[in-house]
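Researcher: I need the complex structure. Ligand is 2,5-dihydroxybenzoic acid. Inputs:
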Amino acid sequence: MQTATAENVAATRQKFYDRLSPRAMAPLWEVLKGLVPDQPKSKFAPHVWKFADARPLLMEAGDLLTAEEAERRVLVLENPAMPGASRITATMYAGYQLIMPGEIAPAHRHTASALRMVLEGNGGYTAVAGERTEMKRGDLVITPAMAWHDHGQENHKPVIWVDGLDLHMVNFYEAAFMDHFNDKSQIVSKPEGFSESEFGSGMAPMSHRTPFGQTSPIFNYTYAKSRPALMQVAGAGEPDAHLAHALRYINPQDGGWAMPTIATWLTQFPKGFETKPIRATDGQAMVVIEGEISVELDGKTFTAGESDVVAVPAWTWKKVRASKDAVVFQMSDRAAQEKLGIFREERK
Ligand code: GTQ
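Model: Output:
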């Protein structure tokens, strides 16, 4: 009789496993630790993208192909730990998008929701569901799921913004659809500012309507409104030890996040202020709108100035220090995680 050495136990088990795989089965005990980990361990790395580095390359892309050829001319922010994945964090897609003067990025619609944080090029526009909005630095423009959208620039300057999309979340569910409009631009049927008038002044139509389902009916949260609001709040009290002065973009219909999957907020960090350590299960991207910050992520420090983007992977200890008064836009998959009941954070 054979004695039960470690080798023959392993060999016997392997023989058993080999009979399972052709039957499309596998032993849980070999994979359980990876399937149900003790705590989050992100496969993604903290990173900073410098706009000074990216902008000339974006302009080169502008010479290489038109927005129409590209459909969307975007330099995708690829997390360096996962090249080729088109991800800035585990679930978030982000990129720098360019529209050259006179160009149109043609009208299409898709299941994925998009946001744009505008960096430069006043005069550019996005049209969403029959309404145009001008894009100015610091504006948060939202494209709800399945809403037609096209982008253009009639001015003489390039337009550049940061895109944030939930497309990986949609694709995870294998639930993605896309349509192309039969013309470059959609038909504009409403005057500019109409949605803002209907939903964006603390009022709403008497007959309850949710034109974009769970997405906010306001599709441009202008910096002309958000900045003075944030500055007044910041000027009136002490910053929160972990969050500094932060305001969330909300859906006025229900007070929840402006988008169903992506959480968005705007933070003012006073010069010299340093936040206490915090970590959370959401993967975040930070876009510096004003000033300069250094972000310590699991002990490594990244400096970010205007229009730079910082990736903060899930469950990474984060400390932010402002070397100048700073305003930072942040986006994450927190909105989706909260709906699923899995969002957690820890503060020191
Ligand atoms: O503007 O519709 O960065 O469809 C990626 C996919 C932007 C957009 C992206 C898109 C868009």
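Model: Summary of the prediction. The mean pLDDT is 96.
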